[in-house]
Design a protein that fits this description.
The protein is α/β, with parallel strands linked by helices. The protein has two domains: 116 residues, Rossmann fold (3-Layer(aba) Sandwich), CATH 3.40.50; 124 residues, Rossmann fold (3-Layer(aba) Sandwich). It is built from nine helices and eleven strands. Helix 8 links the parallel strand 10 and strand 11. The two termini are 12 Å apart.
Length: 253
């Protein structure tokens, strides 16, 4: 069975740029649709207050994503809290750090960032042992960052500022695609929230990341394409390799 129609469970890339999926579609004569299976909703500030999280009790904030920044400052606005200029910001990457410019005067603040991992700035945080760290997280977080801070004996608190929820996909009616591509366990959960009786049959499923791959298997689904792998570091490369191998089998029949 050939692959012609593909559904990517993410927002569509900008139309003004050449995306890897566009190149994949043109090269292999595919129809690729994009549809986010999940969306992010902010936790109301009143609920955060109920958890006794006072933003001004902390002297430093740790950000692992732009979403975390958005919801930290959203909550501050809803609570009518003015974040002091003395607040220190520790960001997972430089790109995340630069995103702070949306809310603060960048050059006037104490901002630290790593390269690609939170471990990159762990030593920096260790040099600020007297700080009280706040980590705005989602409800689907893992405990790796708190464990790292605990290992360095840093004072911290994590608090859920936003939640990942399933999108309404009812307009899709039937999942009429040859290949579904997922990037998070939440996407797999959304599939069954929207289509409780989903039957994979001949539909191929691709996943990105170990946790997503495990979520596919835990759901009793067949995982046909997995990325990243040494021979396929990106999802589009993994899909193209699968299509090429599929065509070889068809030709050799």
């Amino acid at each position: 069975m050939k692959i012609r129609r593909v559904l990517v469970s993410q927002p569509a890339p900008p139309k003004d740029g050449k995306s890897p999926f566009q190149e994949l579609a043109e090269k292999n004569n595919l129809i690729i649709d994009f549809r986010p299976f999940i969306k992010v909703e902010g936790v109301p500030a009143k609920d955060i207050r109920k958890e006794k999280v006072n933003l001004l009790d902390f002297t430093a904030v740790i950000f692992t994503s732009r979403t975390g920044i958005d919801h930290y400052f959203r909550v501050a606005k809803e609570l009518r809290v003015t974040i002091p200029e003395t607040m220190k910001y520790f960001c997972k990457t430089e790109a995340i750090a630069h995103y702070l410019q949306k809310y603060i005067v960048y050059r006037k603040r104490k901002i630290f960032h790593g390269q690609t991992r939170i471990e990159d700035i762990l030593d920096l945080m260790s040099k600020h042992k007297d700080e009280k760290f706040l980590i705005p997280i989602s409800d689907t977080h893992n405990d790796s960052i708190p464990e790292l801070l605990k290992s360095k004996k840093l004072t911290y608190r994590s608090a859920v500022f936003y939640r990942t929820v399933s999108s309404d996909l009812s307009d899709l009616k039937d999942v009429d695609y040859d290949l579904l591509i997922f990037y998070s366990p939440s996407g797999i959960k959304s599939l069954f929230v929207n289509f409780p009786n989903f039957d994979q049959k001949e539909i191929r499923i691709a996943s990105f990341g170990k946790q997503t791959a495990q979520a596919v298997r835990d759901a009793g689904l067949r995982l046909d394409i997995e990325a990243p792998l040494p021979e396929a570091p990106s999802m589009t490369m993994a899909v193209e390799q699968y299509i090429n191998n599929l065509m070889k089998k068809i030709v050799n029949k």
